[in-house]
Design brief:
Blueprint (H helix, E strand, L loop, with lengths): L1 H4 L2 H32 L1 H8 L5 H29 L6 H23 L1
Helix pairs in contact: 2-3, 2-4, 4-5
Length: 112
């Protein structure tokens, strides 16, 4: 069992699951903020002033990273299900994480 947990694809599986859970926990907050646009514009404006704080910008980077990791992890899973198994799949998993860092890093650099 320990051999399987040391495998890079197992780590990709865990990252995909954790990113999915974190995004699911974020969604209610996101919907609440969207509802403020319809119900209380002044409260939304005061809430949006928080987005200028460096910690919030860092959290946005984390959110975009989670979105990108979950997207690329899902594509990796689709490839595993539909394409024949090959040894370089762990390279594709590493490329998915690298692509996620690139996408979220680009977003972060534009935000600051």
């Amino acid at each position: 069992m320990k051999v399987a947990r040391a495998h890079p694809l197992w780590l990709a599986y865990i990252l995909h699951r954790v990113s999915g859970i974190a995004l699911a926990l974020f969604l209610p907050l996101h919907f609440w903020v969207l509802s403020l646009a319809l119900t209380d514009a002044a409260r939304l404006d005061s809430f949006l002033t928080l987005t200028e704080m460096p910690l919030v910008k860092l959290a946005e980077f984390g959110l975009v990273f989670l979105l990108a990791v979950h997207l690329f992890g899902g594509l990796r899973l689709l490839a595993m299900e539909w394409l024949p198994w090959t040894a370089p799949q762990k390279t594709w998993a590493a490329a998915a994480v690298a692509g996620s860092l690139f996408v979220s890093g680009t977003f972060f650099l534009q935000a600051i």
